[in-house]
Amino acid sequence: MKVVIQRVSNAKVEVNDSVKCKINQGFLILLGIENSDSHEDVNWLVSKISKLRVFSDDELKMNLSIKDVKGEIIVVSQFTLHAKTKKGNRPSYINAANPEHAKPLYDEFISKLKNESGVNVKSGIFGANMQLEIVNDGPVTIIIDSKNKE
Predict the structure, then answer these.
(1) Which residue, 32, 74, 114, 117, could crosslink 2 as a Cys pair with Cβ 3.0–4.6 Å?
(2) pTM for the full model?
(3) What is the dihedral of CA 118, 62, 140, 85, to 10 degrees?
(4) Is 141 assigned a catalytic role?
(5) Which of 9, 24, 80, 98 is catalytic?
(6) pLDDT tens by residue, 33-43
(7) Distance CA 45, CA 37 (A)
(8) 53, 113 contact by CB (below 8 A)
(9) Positions of the chain with pLDDT under 70
(10) Where are the extended beta strands (E) located within 16-129?
């Protein structure tokens, strides 16, 4: 399971020219789920994200978590995070999970993130064509892969 976390001052998700959700200060999380992902990947990532200290304290040091700043989160599914580009110019998505495997893990990720982070968590629509509008704050962008726990 791979995530791209962007610290935002605001973000919005639109589907079919209609606003699905929007937030102010917080995270926009792009979530890519692959065939080998399981509940253990969800649990590990949720724990890591809930405690991630990338918001500035009074001394302008990144020392505060999403909960500390009472931020919000938007989660958007993005199978393209698992693109393989070694051969040719057309990416392969062979490692991206099929919807039958990915959707339950996506739903579990959102549910557990709400519970563990204690903040408002919103989401896009799984599998939909979405337009994202974000103001990346910093910019701060963090990539975390549950298969490469660094």
Answers:
(1) 32
(2) 0.94
(3) -90
(4) no
(5) 80
(6) 999 999 999 99
(7) 11
(8) no
(9) none
(10) 18-23, 26-32, 55-56, 62-64, 72-77, 120-123
